[in-house]
C-alpha cells in the first residue's frame, strides 16, 4: 500500500483529498495541529516548528507527500508576512520528506501566481473583480487557493476540451487576453501570497531536479462547496440570504472559474497518484459570471430580492475573466470534474440551511 503524508488534512480541500486518496488505496497519514477524520494515522505537530515538523515527517515514513497547509485567513493572507514563514517551512518540509526516503510530492499552488495584467478588463470602471477576497482558497490553513442562473438542470455540461497540441503563439496570447490561463502563461504575482507560492514552486522545482524527486504543483482556482467558513463568496452569500439579510455586491459581470471542493480534493488525489510533474491547473475549465452565480444562490434561497448588485464598487484593474485551461488535468492526469454548478450550489445552500437550523435549535 502506498503511504501518503498530508498537510492541511483537516482543512477545506484536505478533507476531500483524504477521502479521495483513501479511495485510491493510499494509507493516509496526516500532520498538523488538528486531527482529521478518516486517516490511518495522525502525527501532531505545528508545521511552523522545525523540530516537530521534521520529527513528524520522519515518523510517517511516507512515499508520497500532499502539501496543502498554508495561511489563508480571508482578508489577511494576500499580504500577510506569515507567507514568508510558510515558504520557509514548506521548503524544509519537502527537503525532509525527500531525505527521509519520499519519492513523489504534490504541493498546492494558486491561480494568483499568474500575471493578470494582460487579461482584458471589463468595459466600464468599477464593475470588475471578486466580491470577497479574490481567488478564494480555504479559510483554514490550507492553500489552494476559491455562475449561472438559471443553470442547466443536469450535470452533463463539461469543461471545454481543446486539441492537446495546444494553441499557437498568437493563440496563446489571445487566450491570456480572454482570461483563459494555461500552465505556460507568464507568472507575475501581484500579491505577497502569490509571490510566495510562485517563488516556492521555482525553488522546489530546481531542488526536485537535483534530488531526484517527482514533483507536481496543483494551481487552484476559485473554490466553493459545503463547509465553507466565513469570508468566502458562495457561503457568505448563502448565509446572508438564508437569514434574510441584504447582500451588497458588485455588478457581478466578472467571470470566474469555480470548482466544487470535492472535485478539488479529487483532482489533487489524482495528480498525486500520477507521474505528472510541474504545474497543473485545478479548476472547472469554464468561467461563469459572478452575477449569475449569485442569482442562482438567490433562487435557491428564495431571496433574490435581497441581492444589491452594484452596491460595492470594485477596482477597475480587476480582470474581466479568470478561467483555468484544464487540458493537462484532463489529458495527462486523467481527471474530470464530476460536479456541475447547479448540483454544487444546491448542495452548498442546503448545507448552509442545515447549519443555521442546527444553530437555531442549540440550547
TrEMBL record:
Taxonomic superkingdom: Bacteria
InterPro entries noted in UniProt: Epimerase_deHydtase, Lipid_A_modif_metabolic_enz, NAD(P)-bd_dom_sf
Domain (NAD-dependent epimerase/dehydratase): residue spans on this chain: 4-118, 171-283
Region (Disordered): 122-177
Pfam families registered for this protein in UniProt: Epimerase
UniProt feature, compositional bias: Basic and acidic residues: 142-158
Protein name: CDP-4-dehydro-6-deoxy-D-gulose 4-reductase
Protein's organism: Methylorubrum populi
Taxon lineage: Bacteria, Pseudomonadati, Pseudomonadota, Alphaproteobacteria, Hyphomicrobiales
Amino acid at each position: 500500500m502506498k503511504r501518503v503524508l498530508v498537510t492541511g488534512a483537516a482543512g477545506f480541500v484536505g478533507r476531500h483529498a483524504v477521502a479521495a486518496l483513501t479511495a485510491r488505496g493510499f494509507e493516509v497519514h496526516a500532520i498538523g495541529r488538528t486531527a482529521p477524520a478518516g486517516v490511518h494515522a495522525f502525527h501532531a505537530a505545528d508545521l511552523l516548528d522545525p523540530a516537530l515538523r521534521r520529527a513528524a515527517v520522519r515518523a510517517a515514513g511516507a512515499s508520497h507527500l500532499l502539501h496543502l497547509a498554508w495561511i489563508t485567513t480571508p482578508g489577511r493572507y494576500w499580504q500577510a508576512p506569515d507567507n514568508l514563514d510558510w515558504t520557509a517551512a514548506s521548503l524544509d518540509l519537502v527537503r525532509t520528506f525527500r531525505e527521509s526516503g519520499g519519492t513523489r510530492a504534490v504541493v498546492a499552488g494558486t491561480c494568483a501566481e499568474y500575471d493578470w495584467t494582460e487579461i482584458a478588463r471589463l468595459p466600464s470602471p468599477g464593475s470588475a473583480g471578486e466580491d470577497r477576497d479574490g481567488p478564494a482558497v480555504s479559510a483554514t490553513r490550507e492553500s489552494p487557493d476559491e455562475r449561472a442562473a438559471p443553470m442547466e438542470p443536469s450535470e452533463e455540461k463539461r469543461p471545454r476540451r481543446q486539441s492537446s497540441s495546444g494553441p499557437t503563439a498568437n493563440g496563446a496570447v489571445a487566450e491570456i487576453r480572454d482570461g483563459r490561463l494555461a500552465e505556460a502563461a507568464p507568472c507575475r504575482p501581484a500579491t505577497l501570497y502569490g509571490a510566495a507560492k510562485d517563488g516556492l514552486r521555482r525553488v522546489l522545482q530546481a531542488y526536485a531536479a537535483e534530488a531526484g524527486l517527482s514533483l507536481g504543483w496543483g494551481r487552484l482556482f476559485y473554490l466553493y462547496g459545503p463547509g465553507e467558513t466565513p469570508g468566502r463568496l458562495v457561503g457568505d452569500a448563502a448565509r446572508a440570504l438564508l437569514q434574510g439579510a441584504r447582500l451588497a455586491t458588485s455588478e457581478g459581470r466578472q467571470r470566474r472559474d469555480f470548482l466544487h471542493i470535492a472535485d478539488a480534493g479529487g483532482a489533487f488525489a489524482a495528480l498525486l497518484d500520477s507521474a505528472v510533474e510541474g504545474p497543473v491547473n485545478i479548476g472547472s475549465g469554464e468561467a461563469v459570471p459572478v452575477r449569475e452565480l449569485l442569482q442562482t444562490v438567490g433562487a435557491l434561497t428564495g431571496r433574490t430580492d435581497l441581492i444589491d448588485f452594484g452596491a460595492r464598487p470594485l477596482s477597475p484593474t480587476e480582470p474581466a475573466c479568470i478561467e483555468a485551461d484544464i487540458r493537462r488535468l484532463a489529458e495527462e492526469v486523467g481527471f474530470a470534474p464530476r460536479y456541475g454548478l447547479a448540483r454544487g450550489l444546491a448542495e452548498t445552500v442546503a448545507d448552509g440551511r442545515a447549519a443555521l437550523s442546527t444553530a437555531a435549535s442549540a440550547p
